Amino acid sequence: MAVPKISIRGLKKRFGSKVVLDGLDLDIGAAESVVVIGGSGTGKSVLLKCILGLLDPEEGSIKIDGQEVVGLSTREREAVNTKFGMLFQSAALFDSLKVWENVAFGLVSAQKKSKAEARTIAIEKLAQVGLPPQTGELFPSELSGGMKKRVGLARAIATQPEIIFFDEPTTGLDPIMSDVINDLIVDCVKRAGATALSITHDMASCRKIANRVAMLYQGKIIWDGPVAEIDRSDNAFVDQFIHGRAEGPIRMQIPV
Q1: Residue 184 has pLDDT above 70, yes or no
Q2: CA count, 13 A, side-chain hemisphere, 35
Q3: Residues contacting residue 50 through CB under 8 Å, at least 6 positions apart
Q4: How many CB atoms lie under 10 A from the CB of residue 128?
Q5: What pLDDT was estimated at residue 160?
Q6: What are phi and psi of 141, to 5 degrees?
Q7: Once rounded to an integer, what is the mean pLDDT over residues 211-225?
Q8: Per-residue b/e over 47-78, b at no fewer than 16 CB within 10 Å?
Q9: Residue 254: pLDDT above 60?
Q10: Residue 185 pLDDT > 80
């Protein structure tokens, strides 16, 4: 069988006495789009940060193209991370840089391209997400929320990454703009032939961008299957979550 693009086994991460990831297993194949769903505070962002090397797990294995990345040196980690692109939840644009400079950031800093070449690529990527060339001369403060997401997506694909991560890509957007961003994600990932891993609690987004869905609950993946099968998962936790029901096996922890 083909080596998974991302393979995670027995991943554990805790903060003090709080266990966030508790033996998580997950495989993601090449050119596959997997969405991890789960409630707020279930560890979706922690999972991403462990894969990206921003957090060190206490136990477990994370392999990228068959290479173990847990415990790598800084230089080795940087080499692996050149395969990655990322669309952050808040777009995370640099306020002091023009839009084209934001999109071109990885091209200049990691790939050492000239500013002229990087600018040309940045304008091409902005066009790919539906933004005209003049947008490149604006600053992030001049953009709407939807435009910022588009710029963030353009930056995520600018370096032609093999793996793209999407962190709550539709947060803060209205339903119409959310659907526009979902369509752009599907198109951009398909064009790039990239593997995609997204985390979200937006089920409309999940249904649009996923090939496969995995639900994270109490530190483990409790269901994993094709997005077309999610409505007949026969899993009470999944059923409660995707329909947003207050009653069910998932109990929200309310501070007192």
Answers
A1: yes
A2: 26
A3: 11, 13, 21, 56, 57, 62
A4: 18
A5: 94
A6: -65, -15
A7: 96
A8: bbbbbbbebebeebebbbbeeebbebeeeeee
A9: no
A10: yes
> d(Cα 213, Cα 247) in Å, to the nearest integer?
22
One-letter amino acid at 44 equals K
What is the distance between the alpha carbons of residues 105 and 115, in angstroms, rounded to a whole number?
10
For 51-104, the pLDDT digits (tens) are 999 999 999 999 999 999 999 999 999 999 999 999 988 778 999 999 999 999
Neighbour count for residue 218 (Cβ, 10 Å): 14
> Distance between CA atoms of 24 and 75, rounded to whole angstroms?
27
Spatial CA neighbour of 58 closest among 76, 71, 45, 72: 71
β-pair type (33-37, 195-200): parallel
Rounded to an integer, what distance in angstroms lies between the CA atom of residue 183 and that of residue 168? 15
Residue 226's beta-bridge partner residues? 212
The whole-number pLDDT of residue 41 equals 86
Has residue 256 got a pLDDT over 50? Answer: no
Q: Which residue has the higher pLDDT, 141 or 1?
A: 141
The structure tokens listed for 240 are 């409660």
Token digits of residue 224? 């994993």
- 86: nearest Cα among 53, 58, 123: 53
Q: Kindly state the tokens that stand for 205.
A: 């987004």
Cα of first residue to Cα of last residue in the chain, in angstroms, is 50
**Radius of gyration in angstroms for the set of CA atoms belonging to the chain, rounded to a whole number:** 18
Task: Map residue 218 onto helix, strand or coil.
Answer: coil
